[in-house]
Amino acid sequence: xxxxxxxxxxxxxxxxHVDNFTENPLEGNALAVVLDADDLDTVTMQRVAREFNLxxxxxxxxxxxxxxxxxxxIFTPQxxxxxxxxxxxxxxxxxxxxxxxxxxxxxxxxxxxxxVPIRIEGDDDPLIWLETPPITIGRTFDRDTWAxxxxxxxxxxxxxxxxxxYSAGVPCVFVALRDMQAVDAADVDERGMRHALLxxxxxxxxxxxxxxxxxxxxxxxxxxxxxxxxxxxxxxTGPLAAFMLDYDxxxxxxxxxxxxxxxxxxxxxxxxxxxxxxxxxxRRIEVGGKVVPFATxxxxxxxxxxxx
Length: 308
Description:
Elements: E1 3-20, E2 29-34, H1 42-52, E3 57-61, E4 68-75, E5 80-81, H2 85-97, E6 106-111, E7 114-121, E8 127-131, E9 136-141, H3 143-149, E10 163-167, E11 172-176, H4 180-185, H5 190-196, E12 205-212, E13 215-222, E14 227-230, H6 234-246, E15 257-262, E16 270-279, E17 282-289, E18 291-307
Parallel strand pairs: 2-3, 4-6, 11-12, 13-15
Antiparallel strand pairs: 1-2, 1-18, 3-4, 4-5, 6-7, 7-8, 8-17, 9-10, 10-11, 12-13, 13-14, 15-16, 16-17
Helix pairs in contact: 2-6, 3-5
């Protein structure tokens, strides 16, 4: 972590406020993107994210790799994340809007998890895709305990499907439910969640969903990350697709293209597109979405001499 040693004069930083995984302002998942933030230290970035108080705030810095166009650091109001979906998509949109791609349609962003491939589809109203980092499969959890933690009945859980952790950087427990009404009824009890996690001390998200003809209807809770409920979770949608394919839950006609609807219950409907390919025997999952600019502005902050 960077430390500060002696504040310098205040400096202005431009930022965008964008809504992600939507074509409509005031829907989707909001994101603040602070440009040219190389002079900010980690502590200040975290304080800025707390000030914006959105599910995530990103900071655009100079890239670390010659093939990347930028380095992106991602913060919730409480912690820094290795990777997250809507911050990646929204940051790519802002970099595109700033004219920093020189016409490129494919590039990478440096994130804490490593380089994340990005693809731009279309020109005037682009669909922006990220390639999900490698997915790991974790523990299986007790179904009845999770039903109680979600304030629903065990009968609301989809039969014969485990509650299991999958991760593409942020571990999530996936809980499959019978229908959309059960998804809307879910409400995380934090005490019950701690019991359901059986001592798991990592920051972890709870992802509830039900299969639909178009893909999935979903909600995500992450109180350990300072996020009561997230309107759209791109980092969990790749693992969601893997989970659904592993347990034969995809009913969309084309199993390689479907989408997850998330955030509807909280009034911020989001559409997260999924594309699944087989590349040299390896499952590759892309998550894509539209982005709508909402506001731009300037913040003034003290900057510091940084030491690592």
